[in-house]
Amino acid sequence: MSGPRYHRTRAQDQRLLAFECQSCGYVSFPDERRTCKRCGDAPATFEEVRLAERGEVETFVVQEYLPDDIEVPQPLAIVDLPQADGEGESARVYGLLTETELDELSVGTEVEARFRELFDDGERPINSFKFAVPREVKR
Amino acid sequence: MTDAHVVGSGIIDFGEKYEWSFDDLLEGAYLDLVESVDHGIEPTKDIDAIWYGTLDIANEGASGASVAHATGLFEKPATQIVNACATGSDAFRNAVQAVKAGDVEVALVIGAEKMLDSTEGLIGGAALERLWRGRGVTMPAFFGMRATRHMEQYDTTREQIAEVSVKNHENGTKYPHAHQQFECTVDDVTESATVSYPLNLYDCCPVTDGACAVLVTNDERAREFTDAPVRVAGYGFSTDSFMRGDDLALTNFPASRQASSMAYERSGYGPDDVDVAEVHDCFSITELITYEDLGFCEQGEAGAFIDDGVPHLDGDKPVNPSGGLLSKGHPIGATGVAQIAEIFEQLRGEAGDVQVPDAEVGLQHNIGIGRNATGAVSCVNILER
Ligand SMILES: [Zn+2]
User: Which domain of life is it from (chain A) (predicted)?
Assistant: First the structure.
């Protein structure tokens, strides 16, 4: 799949830029909107915040059956990333994992974002991140 | 304001219908309905409007014109509803609203899906998309996330999740229109191939062609068609997303809670009043967490609920007597309509080998996933005899 859509969220993909609703504190990632998904404020006022690179796995799966052009196993997690300055709420982030060993993964496992080229859209590389278990946390 | 009543239903056997075109599916369900209305029907004269549910996965059924072509019901309003896995039940809900409003006297609700004509298959081509981050989230992954977290948070066991599939396959062997008519054991489920850890092949519904239709009318006309109409007591529809940050959405579906709350409030019934339910079991885990979302048991107690046999055919609150999506199949546009048809039969005492004795109140539920696997839609309808 090609096209501009993957390039619209470059700051989110590469710098973990997120958006905090000034009414309810919800942290939107990757969506940059003028309406709030949680409180419905419209127009809402958002302030840019940076997310920390480390957070906790809230839940995960390991996908074993995918279209032929995607390698398996392909683990996927929902990770809560706190804000980099330690203030406010975390953002709930979908992300691929590098770990494929179930022994290394559980709800609550600490992971960190590792930035890399994830794939290309047919024309240009898309740089984003995958989550990995930091070396000092590995069992 | 009038009530709405279901006064007829028609269905084709679900399965791999390679010999049937998409129009054949629609026509088959429609003719079965026409031929089974107790007191008969003159379709072109009696039917005022059509609500038609399909995602049109086969790409040959778009717009209300398609259902007119398949049934011969031209010169009438015909509305296509597309709402993820709640497509069929939302088509029904829209028809009910129009009848209750007095704008339509007799409505045909019909849903169909040809799942097996797609060359790329569901995993490759479905609404899954490639996420913005680049790689797809499949349906088994989306639901599997809930399984992983539910097991961790509530000590739900893999065997309890598997038991949903065992129960529904057993029911499906007794339901004549079910696609997959075989029994399986907990070991069969837990030892089948991993699709998306923690879910295995037998945790997943099959890929199935099917169609189903029901007839909805008002107080005044209901007994023109049957002496045993089934009243629509309530309905609800809602959307939600785990992206909103609620921890409950990591294990369950807030959209199902909202939709069922609306339906309970509108009907005056609560979860304890439900005698039989047809709920969304696209995956085994989906039905398990739905017990909680519909209030059939407390949060986190779904494992014990099924261990105690409550949702089994001979239990206190039978769930998916038709075999559910796991056995009957999940032709998306038809799925919700077929659940309504099953509740209609249950409440009329016509459900054959899967009849729940003396069922008076029945509930139908779908949960559907949309928006690149981040959002959920839920529809709940409550019927009573
Ligand atoms: Zn807000």
Answer: Archaea
CA distance B144 to B100: 39
Chain A residues bordering chain B (beta-carbon distance below 8 Å): 1, 5-6, 9, 13, 26-27, 30-31, 37-38, 58-67, 70, 73-74, 76, 78, 89, 92, 94-96, 102, 106-108, 118-119, 126, 128
Q: Is residue B123 part of a domain?
A: no
Instruction: Determine the average pLDDT of the residues in A27-52.
Output: 96
Enclosing domain of residue B299: 128-204+231-384
Task: Count Cβ atoms below 10 Å from residue B284 Cβ, excluding itself.
Answer: 29
pLDDT confidence tier of residue B126, bands split at 50, 70 and 90: very low
B36 lies in the same domain as B165: no
CA distance B192 to chain A (A): 13
Whether the CB of B244 is below 8 Å from some CB of chain A: the reply is yes
- Is B379 among the domain residues? yes
Residues B242 and B343 in one domain: yes
- The ipTM value here is 0.94
At residue B132, the pLDDT reads 41
Nearest C-alpha in A relative to B239: A37
The CA R_g of chain A, rounded to the nearest whole Å, is: 16
Q: Look at B195 and A65 and tell me if their CB atoms are within 8 Å.
A: yes
| Integer Cα distance of B131 and B372 in angstroms | 6
> Based on the domain organization, do B289 and B361 belong to the same domain?
yes
- Look at B311 and B125; give whichever has higher pLDDT: B311
Q: Are residues B139 and B162 in the same domain?
A: yes
Whether B119 and chain A come into contact, CB under 8 Å, resolves to no
C-beta atoms of A63 and B196 within 8 A: yes
CA–CA dist B293, B150 (Å, integer): 13
Does B316 lie in the same domain as B259? yes
Residue with the two structure tokens 């219908």: B17
Residue of chain B whose alpha carbon sits nearest to that of A91: B245
CB contact under 8 A, A64 and B194: yes
Give yes or no: residues B272 and B179 share one domain.
yes
Note whether residue B321 is domain-resident: yes
Report the chain B residue with the minimal C-alpha distance to residue A68: B124
Query: What's the CATH code of the domain at B58?
Result: 3.40.47.10
Residue among B130, B134, B138 minimizing CB distance to A128: B134
Name B310's Cβ contacts closer than 8 Å, sequence gap at least 6. Answer: B296, B297, B316, B317
